[in-house]
Amino acid sequence: MEERLKKSDTLNVLGQLAAGIAHEVRNPMTAVKGFIQLLESSMDKEHSMYFNIISTELARIDSIINEFLFLSKPQAVKYMENDIIIIMRETVKLLNAQALLNNIQFRTYYEYGLPSILCEGNQLKKVFINIIKNAIEVMPKGGFITITIQSFNEDSVKVSIEDEGGGIQEDKLDKLGQPFFTTKERGNGLGLMVSYKIIDEHKGSVKVDSIEGKGTTFNIYLPKINQKIF
Ligand code: ADP
Ligand code: MG
Q: In terms of domain of life, where is this protein from (predicted)?
C-alpha cells in the first residue's frame, strides 16, 4: 500500500511538470505541422519520402503530448453511476476489428446484478482500451483475450483482462506504469501510466499477474457504490 502511495505521489509531481511542458510544446508543434503541410505541395518525389517520415514522427510527438496533457486536465470530471459491463461491452465492440485482424477472439464473462460504479465512463473506457490494446500487441499469433467482471468482495468489483502473450519478466513488473517504460520499438510507454492514474483517481487499484511464456492478467479493483448512502 505504501509503495502504491509513493508511486502515485511521484506520478502527480512528474505528471504536472510533464503536462506543463506538453502544453508549451503544443503551439510551436502546431506551427511546424502547418508549415510542413504547406511544403508538401512543392516537394519532388525524393523529398516526399522524407515528408512521410516527418509526418509519422510528428504524429508520434502528438500522441505523447496528448497523453501528458490528459494528466493536467482539471479534476472537474463528472463522476456518475455507471454500469461497468456496458462500458466494457462498448470497449470490446470498439476493438473487435483490430482483434480479428490479429486472429484474436474475446471471451467475456460478466456477472449479472453487479452494483453500479461511480466513475467517469470515458476515462474508464480509456483504461480498458489501453490494457486490451497491450494484450492484442503481445499476441501476434492470435488466441484468446479473456475478460471477466465479477464481484470481488463486499466493497469492490474486479475486472480481469487476461492474455496469452509472452508474459512480463518479474523484475519488470515494478516498472509498469512508469512514464516511458516500454519494450516496444514503436511504443511510448505512456498508456499504463495514464491508466494507473485514472484508476487511482477512481480510488481503485491494479494487480498484475504474469507467467512468462504463458500470459498476463491485469486485475483492476474498483469500489462499489456504497449501498448505505441510499
Ligand atoms: P506501450 O504500449 O507504448 O509500450 P504501455 O504503458 O501501454 O506502453 O505499456 C508499457 C510496457 O508494459 C509495454 O511496452 C510492455 O513491455 C509491458 N506490458 C504491458 N502490457 C503487457 C502485456 N499484456 N503483456 C506483456 N507486457 C505488457
Ligand atoms: Mg500500450
A: Bacteria
CA atoms within 13 A on the CB side of 172: 11
Go through 107-116 and write b for each residue having 16 or more CB atoms within 10 A of its CB, e for each that does not.
eeeeeeeeee
One-letter amino acid of 29: M
Looking at residue 73, its pLDDT comes to 64
Please, which contacts does 207-210 make with residues 24 or more away whose CB atoms are closer than 8 Å? 208/168, 208/173, 208/176, 210/167, 210/168, 210/170, 210/173
Ion ligand 2 residue ranges (Cβ < 5 Å): 134, 191
Task: Using most ligand atoms within 8 A of CB, pick from 134, 147, 209 the residue to mutate for ligand 1.
Answer: 134
Q: What is the mean pLDDT of the chain?
A: 88
| CA 209 to ligand 1 center in whole angstroms | 13
What's the pLDDT at 2? 46
8 A C-beta contact, residue 191 and residue 208: no
Q: Does ligand 1 lie within 6 Å of residue 181's CB atom?
A: yes
Q: What is the mean predicted confidence (pLDDT) over 164-183?
A: 94
In the numeric block, the cell 523484475 is attached to 171
Q: For the whole model, what pTM was predicted?
A: 0.83
CB of 183 closer than 6 angstroms to any ligand 1 atom? yes
Q: What is the pLDDT of residues 92-148, one digit of tens each?
A: 999 999 999 999 999 999 999 999 999 999 899 999 999 999 999 999 999 999 999
Kindly list the distances between the CA atom of residue 227 and the CA atoms of 46, 63, 69, 175, in Å, as whole numbers in the listed order: 66, 40, 35, 36
Residue type, 207: K
